Amino acid sequence: MPLYKDEGLVLRTVKLGEADRIITILTRDHGKIRAVAKGVRRLRSRFGARLEPFMRADLLIATGRSLDVVSQASSKGMYADRIIADYDSYVNAGMVVETADRLFSTLDEPSPRQYLLAVGAVSALARRLHAPGDIGESYMLRALALAGWRPRLDACVVCGGAAGLCAFSTPGGGAMCGGDRTPEARTVTARQLARLRALLAGDWDALDGADDDDDGAGVVHAIVEEWAEYYLERPIRSAHLLDS
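Request: output the structure for the sequence above.
Response:
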């Protein structure tokens, strides 16, 4: 079978038979692939823990008829242990890999920028660089924007004016002023819109320096979750864990 090399981030795994797994991997140069890792569930597996969710690895893969086969895997980013040790990091990492999985169901070709964005988010969660919720929400908005679904947050999507922004419409595409808001639009404050802009830009100075506001953060999370589910046309189940 032809072989190819790539690096990838493990998104999810599914048991296959008594000892194997089907691994869904987001790769840098081949997009999302599904490959069989043979014997990976055995205690003496040559892959060890290198093909668990949230792990980044250099891969040698054999092309198969229906599913590829992982021939070699060497660790490139050992993120899983630190992520699963913290609940908030774990839930937000789940949100990242689930969003990437859903997103690449709609993309027809590889996207190295999407790959690096997902790896950066998982790595940041493992290293506790910022608040887990900020990392997860920023990833979702930036990944969707990179795919073509960027919310307009600096002006009204109807009239184009920058004054009096007080609502956000997911179907409408972003912020709205009081005169143009549609019935389904959600009321937002200037502070909440500023937080959304910071998440979309990856402005960590603004996000890390923001005052805690549970109510405002809840509204922003609901908007990000709604935006992702509306444009991906599927629920993000990991995001719902943050609602409870």
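The radius of gyration is 20 Å.
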